Amino acid sequence: MSDSAGANAPKPSSSVKLVLLGEAAVGKSSLVLRFVNNDFQENKEPTIGAAFLTQKCTLPTRTIKFEIWDTAGQERFASLAPMYYRNAQAALVVYDVTKPSSLTKAKHWVAELQRQASPGIVIALVGNKLDLTNDGGDAFAAPEPENESVGAEGDEATDEAAEDTTPGDARKVSTREANSYAEEESLLFFETSAKTGTNVVDVFTAIANAIPESSLKTGRGAAGAGQTALGGRSGEDSRVNLGERNAATAKEGCAC
Amino acid sequence: METLSETPWDVIIAGTGLAQSLLALALSRSGKKVLHLDRNPYYGGSEAAFSLDEAQEWMDGVNQRGQSPFEDVKIFTYQHPQDSPQSTPSQDGSESSARPAGTPDIRANLAASRAYTLSLSPYFLYTRSRLISTLISSKVYRQLEFMAVGSWWIHSPENPNVEDCDLGATRAFHRVPGNREDIFADTHISMKSKRTLMRFLRHISKSEDEGDVETDEDLSMPFGEYLSSKFSVPQNLHAPLLSLSLSQLSQQSTSATYAVPRVKRHLSSIGTFGPGFGGVVSKYGSASEILQVACRASAVGGGVYALDTGIQSLADGDVTADAEYPVEVQLSSGESVRSKVVFGSTWDLSEKEQLSPPTKVARSISVVSSSLASLFPITVEGAPMAASTVLMFPGDTLSSPQSPPVYLQVHSSDTGDCPREQSIIYGSVSLPGPEGHTLLECAVDRLVRAEGPQAIVLWSMRYDQLGRLSNDGTPPTLHTHSPHVFSFPPSSLDLALEDDTVDTVKEAWTRIVGVEVDHDDFMIFDDRDGASAE
């Protein structure tokens, strides 16, 4: 009894707002679908409107609940993204490794995030559609820009040599080019395949790990929040939880 | 979708104020094809929130273009005494000379522009307001963070504690008792006065409990007269009670019909979501954040958004041409779109006519180099630390008894509106033009002086705003411009959002959905965690 209670004691849980950006058809929604449902749809219809999905990511010491906002094709009206990345703690900027113009677009998004989003935002640059290249399976993955391993450096060089010469390889953006850009801008960097699932979970885990403890909030609407703030001024403790009276209020409101 | 004109729309909504954004959400979730536009490159219209740089841009736009509910915007930036011999602009400069010259004070500096979220409409929500229940039933509240609105304060220039520096800003203010325990504990009120106050509060809460048994009570007299004649509440307690109603008119001009239900609202809201507070304010820009969350949820429901795209002109009623989509709209982008119905505010529909002249108030936003911590005491055990507080300056403390009161709402850094060790003062007075601006400046100056020499107004903006006040009396309704074009009333200028904003949204929604859906289902949605895997 007491044992299981100890083992099942809930880890601290935090919500992280993550915004998904990138050119149309680079596979943004597919990446999220793979992460959230472990599923892939060939020839997926373009997302209409926008999408909101959530997925939990369990780390050794805490649980992160990603709230994923997909601007989904409305970028052309340049209207949703600013609202989406406002107060976002993480951004996934996606390009297609077979389409150089999509990296240009990704760089544009990174610049805009650095200019407009919250100063502490964690940005991950993701090159998707790795399955269309020859190095399909064992992809490049830099865990974090700071603690980059020497081994990865070597692999990368050989990868690149291979991909430039091999016929039938659809790759048009070299790992080296994207990685050195990511390093310059202090971005997390991964190459993924939403189709095969390569590196997809790793991207989200890396983001979860990179988010500074200080910018984490306890889950919105989580029980207990907003009740105990006798100490110093702390925004986290003093949030008001509207979920508490949920049922009662919903019933008596609005049914006028 | 490549262009907006590709398909006809069920509804085009112009402007992204709170009412329009809630309507967009309600309709998109009722399966309507919604195109939501804003002529500005930002969300919120007259309820937007800005960084310092954006505020500057906004000011330039308003003063040049006109044609908006704002007039006469001015921005003042504090000049360090060592930078300029002129010292504080728009102040007499004596407070800057009180600081030893050349002492670098790191706190007395503005942070980066984006560290600020300055709200044009910093209203808060009472916990029992219709918008709160709408945010809950629609699950929109999950994307928002709310902070408590704490104490109410009344300015009392002749406070005996004026020498006690430990009290900070509260030296110049009395805390308004918000419940029976407060009244008992209050040391400024005589026993006799306490009894009259208790009688009034008991009367109010009684009619609340017993389902408004006393609705036939005569409330046509001014609020002050009502308090004196019916409960013998002494004069000096009239202003504190008036402040709980948030009336923007003077005591003489505020009727009991207005004040009594709003004092009730204040008292009955306390405790709903936790002890010690009855109001909440949304983090990161108040109304601006709520409406953006609504737009986001509307986009997830299929709504399409285009900023920087206004309505140039529209033609309605040519029933023979395209009966199903009778409204043809020319957008500022050059595109032409068709819709069954169009909604917008008067300004968004670029109508020249004003139906009833809107009310005009003066407002100010000030960034202060102090957290003004003494204004945020914890007064009830277990209460959350408040992030916002309301200060009222009765007319006679700044000008004359006939003057309208000045209200200041102070937001701490917990609202996300400013960096730590600073605070934002939002001021409002229902007297536009230079007179109102002077009252606002004077009120802010008294608060800042009471705090002490370390408190400086680092940046401030003052402007006149057109809209409507609940004091105006007539409840707002949708206006029919032509058979398929409707306009919302102008934005609320109240300090706490009144329920009528949600009522007009429901009215608009009902017009569109007709008998298709049960009207009780307005804004009641299931959780949209989508493919969420636990």
UniProtKB/TrEMBL annotation, chain A:
Coiled coil: none
Keyword presence, Nucleotide-binding: yes
Sequence ranges of Acidic residues compositional bias: 153-163
Transmembrane segments annotated in the record for this chain: none
Disordered: annotated segments: 137-175, 217-256
GO molecular function: GTP binding; GTPase activity
Assigned keywords, A-Z: Nucleotide-binding
Pfam family, one: Ras
Descriptive protein name: Vacuolar protein sorting-associated protein 21
Lineage: Eukaryota, Fungi, Dikarya, Ascomycota, Pezizomycotina
UniProtKB/TrEMBL annotation, chain B:
Gene3D superfamilies assigned: FAD/NAD(P)-binding domain (3.50.50.60), Guanine Nucleotide Dissociation Inhibitor, domain 1 (1.10.405.10), Guanine Nucleotide Dissociation Inhibitor, domain 2 (3.30.519.10)
One Pfam family, short name: GDI
Single GO BP term: vesicle-mediated transport
Chain intervals for the UniProt region annotation (Disordered): 80-104
Amino acid composition bias (Polar residues), ranges on this chain: 80-97
GO MF entry, a single one: GDP-dissociation inhibitor activity
Cellular component terms (Gene Ontology): cytosol; nucleus; Rab-protein geranylgeranyltransferase complex
Domain of life: Eukaryota
Similarity annotation: Belongs to the Rab GDI family.
Name of this chain's protein: Rab proteins geranylgeranyltransferase
